[in-house]
Amino acid sequence: MKHTIFTLLILLITPNVFATENTPIKAVNNLFDAMRQHDGNKLLAQFTQDAQLERVTIDNVVTRSELPKFAHFVGTSEKYLDEKLLSISIHVSDNLASIWTPYAFYIDGKLSHCGVNSFQLIHTDKQWKIQYLIDNTHSGDCNTFINKHKKTSA
């Protein structure tokens, strides 16, 4: 009887453990971990084969970056690259997810710029991958931006 109750508890708990490991935010966190670790291959592994990486400039022009070049830059940079997410908003519908993340970007510990990331992810091969990432850079004061978007809870 004790073994039956124990087995039932394990079966009830186990899916929840795996569910937290297979969430869209994992790919985003892995992306920024890869940047901090200078791991271009890990960075690329978070994206689909035909993913797009774009930025909206202050002049409202959309520029596209080549993902392999960005991964190479990250992998060879001697500077410590640290993108801190200030808050996270996640929306999921079946195999599609959208993540909105205001951020502050630091190079060697010094604030470089801030803005917002918008991720579109798809669930493929039993994991979430980034299909599209577009970001912007805030044109105003980053300290004010950071205070406005800072997480209020864990």
Give a quick precis of the structure.
This protein is an alpha+beta fold and 154 residues long. It has five helices and seven strands; from the N terminus they run H-H-H-E-E-H-E-E-E-E-E-H.
Structural overview:
- The chain is of the alpha+beta class and 154 residues long.
- The protein has a single domain (24-149), classed as Nuclear Transport Factor 2, Chain: A (Roll).
- 37% of the residues lie in helices and 40% in strands.
- It has 5 helices and 7 strands.
- Strands 1, 2, 3, 4, 5, 6 and 7 form a 7-stranded mixed beta sheet that branches.
- A hairpin with a 2-residue loop joins strand 6 (110-124) and strand 7 (127-137).
- The longest helix has 20 residues, at 2-21.
- The N and C termini lie far apart (39 Å).
- Mean pLDDT is 88; it is low at 3-20.
